[in-house]
Design goal:
201 residues; 27% helix; four-stranded mixed β-sheet; alpha/beta; Rossmann fold; 34% strand; nine-stranded mixed β-sheet
Length: 201
């Protein structure tokens, strides 16, 4: 069972439908116990960082995420779900994250000619050996919608990079914790391959 965390923010239906298309059993839930008891967990998200952290904490889902990690179950963060796993974000002031990955979430400040948010298809360059990108070609295109990106303190956690007027980290992994800035559920066949890789870990 793959649990998709519902904390009131995120495009849950598209994530759920993508896993169903691949033939995996899912549940969309805001129940911390269901999250902890699942075989794999997805933390999606769209919206404001501080509101998302507050919603997670109010529902006890932050503790559920920590327990999933403690039990070494595969966890996948998507878009805002990636950012929430970091120590802090500069969105609307400084706001604390879940601190699973040490590092900060910062706003795009690209050169002239690049609009923010970064929206649309962009090339992704996986790091050799990244488990989430097994059998994914170097330079494949994935779908992004975001105004902020992550700066990990530990370069060994970087799983992939992209470029939008500046080079930025677009995926991380450490042990059984994985996260992408792009939306695999909206990224066609390559995106489905990412989700399939996660479901098989």
């Amino acid at each position: 069972m793959i649990a998709i965390i519902d904390y009131g923010m995120g495009n849950l239906a598209s994530v759920n439908n993508a896993f169903l298309k691949l033939g995996y059993e899912t549940c969309t839930t805001s129940d911390p116990e269901e999250v902890v008891n699942a075989d794999r967990v997805v933390l999606p998200g769209v919206g404001a960082f501080a509101d998302a952290v507050m919603n997670l904490c109010d529902r006890g889902l932050d503790k559920a995420v920590y327990e999933v990690i403690k039990r070494n179950k595969p966890l996948l963060g998507i878009c805002l779900g990636l950012q929430l796993l970091f120590s802090e974000s500069e969105e609307n002031g400084t706001n604390r994250g879940l601190d699973v990955f040490k590092g900060r979430v910062v706003k795009f400040r690209p050169p002239p000619g690049f609009k923010v948010p970064h929206m649309g298809w962009n090339e992704v360059r996986p790091v050799p050996g990244a488990r989430l990108f097994a059998n994914i070609p170097h330079g494949g295109y994935f779908y992004f919608v975001h105004s902020y990106y992550v700066l990990p303190e530990d370069s060994s956690s970087i799983a992939a990079r992209s470029d939008y007027g500046l080079d930025f980290v677009c995926a991380v992994e450490n042990g059984n914790i994985f996260a992408t800035q792009f939306h695999p559920e909206k990224s066609g066949e390559l995106g489905l391959k990412i989700l399939s890789n996660f479901a098989r870990i």
